[in-house]
Write a structure and sequence with these properties.
Shape: globular
Strand content: 15-25%
Distance between the termini: 28 Å
Structural class: alpha/beta
Helix content: 25-40%
Number of strands: 14
Number of helices: 9
Bound molecules: magnesium ion
Strand order of the largest sheet: 1-2-5-6-9-10-11-12
Radius of gyration: 17 Å
């Protein structure tokens, strides 16, 4: 089995410093935290940007200094978020793709996010996918239910998304698919041949579904975007979360992949080759 790719999602759109004192928000804080996680075994960083007031933004100018500061420190794979919370139109949400990160997230269906809608109509999905395709940015397909997975397969068959895809199966978001093993097994049956896949499980299902992903040959995302407590009422840091997944991987014989190893697994070019 391949080594396990640990993705760290250090900031997200929702947590604030008030709810999480260790949350990295500024480019310098994000880069420093990502670097600590990289040393602990993270090989991909899923990045959200905030504006000067700490609010989510899709502005490419907010992403740029984060990328630059991370690159000063390490070769971790940088994956930018094109999620629905920070922007509205495809142009707004896809602005960061023009920065040509190695990867960007691509939700291939709509769903509910707690009190809001994860709004991804087909035209917007195709536009973001097309922009990633043209610029050689590998999408991480974000799947919140079976229909999003089936739509990603459809787009790949139509030639809008390159194969093999990397698919992130997301569980435990209130209003979307619950974080139970049955849901994971069900989605795994529908994965296209040759894809790589990871699990993101929000909240208390995180440990169980992360362990299943490791045992079944998948990869794992963790970080304060997904989880603010290690156990109930016990605040946590990105570093602790990455360390916990790395230990879980080792317990099942899967060391964390280095960034170079993760690039191989994901079919990305080596960094020096651009
Ligand atoms: Mg995100």
């Amino acid at each position: 089995m391949d080594k396990v790719i640990i993705t760290v999602a250090p900031t997200g759109n929702v947590p604030t410093r008030e709810t999480c004192s260790d949350l990295p928000v500024t480019p310098a804080e994000i880069a420093e935290d990502v670097y600590r996680c990289y040393i602990a075994g993270a090989s991909v960083a899923h990045i959200h940007a905030r504006d000067k007031d700490g609010k989510p933004t899709a502005d490419a100018n907010a992403f740029k200094p984060i990328i630059d500061k991370i690159r000063e420190k390490c070769d971790i794979i940088i994956q930018l978020s094109t999620g629905a919370r920070a922007g509205k139109s495809a142009a707004e949400r896809g602005a960061c793709i023009l920065l040509k990160p190695e990867m960007a997230s691509l939700s291939t269906g709509s769903s509910n996010f707690s009190r809001t809608v994860n709004y991804n109509p087909p035209g917007l999905i195709k536009e973001l996918a097309g922009r990633m395709f043209e610029l050689g940015v590998k999408p991480e397909i974000e799947v919140f239910d079976i229909s999003a997975l089936e739509y990603a397969v459809y787009l790949a068959e139509k030639g809008l998304i390159k194969q093999p895809m990397h698919i992130n199966l997301v569980f435990g978001v209130p209003g979307s698919m619950g974080g139970i093993p049955r849901n994971l097994f069900f989605l795994l049956e529908s994965l296209p041949a040759g894809c790589t896949w990871s699990v993101t499980s929000i909240g208390k299902s995180h440990r169980q579904l992360s362990a299943l992903a490791i045992v079944l040959g998948g990869h794992v995302r963790t970080g304060l975007e997904d989880l603010l407590e290690l156990e109930q009422g016990c605040p946590v840091s990105n570093l602790q979360l990455v360390e916990r997944v790395a230990a879980l991987g080792r317990a099942y014989g899967r060391e964390p992949a280095t960034a170079a190893e993760a690039r191989k697994i994901l079919g990305l070019k080596t960094l020096s080759a651009g």
